[in-house]
Amino acid sequence: MDIYINNTRTFGKYLDRPHHHDLMLANHCMAGAYEDQRKVELPKDGDLIAIYANGLGIIAYGFATSQIEFLDDDRVGGNPTKVRKLRDFQLIAYPIHHSEYETSNTQTLQKVSKGKAEFYRLLLERKVPESDPTLFMNAE
Question: Could you tell me the residue ranges of all domains in the chain?
Fold first, then answer.
């Protein structure tokens, strides 16, 4: 299994184009716009995709599927975009800062080549825990 980091390209442009960040989190997918659309097809099915938000770090992850769609300009605020569904999507309880692993995240999609086991361990450590079904059982 390979590991990739997909940058949501948010801060600095978020107020103008929040849709990629929101689109990826709400629909459990990776995305690429304009010339980066082709990068959505690079990972193999089952590869791990970590979602990175500028200024925050890794905020979620999932595993690539074969479901790839092209979103026309009208659906994504004038930015033609290709998206790929991720399975077993997990939010991170607190972001993993880029200083905690070896990559700069300056690209839309970057392959993690060093320290893959450590990177994966960090993801598992920080995933949001399952909810407690015993909470609020006595609520009236």
Answer: 3-126
What tens digit of pLDDT does each residue of 32-68 get?
877 788 889 999 999 999 999 887 889 999 999 999 9
Query: 29-33 and 81-96 as β-strands: parallel, antiparallel, unpaired?
Result: antiparallel
- What is the three-class DSSP state of 72? coil
Question: Domain 3-126 class?
Answer: alpha beta
pTM metric for this prediction: 0.84
- How many angstroms separate the Cα of 62 from the Cα of each of 17, 52, 65, 127, 140? 23, 12, 9, 11, 37
Taking residues 6-16, what's their average pLDDT? 60
Q: How far apart are CA 100 and CA 115, in angstroms?
A: 11
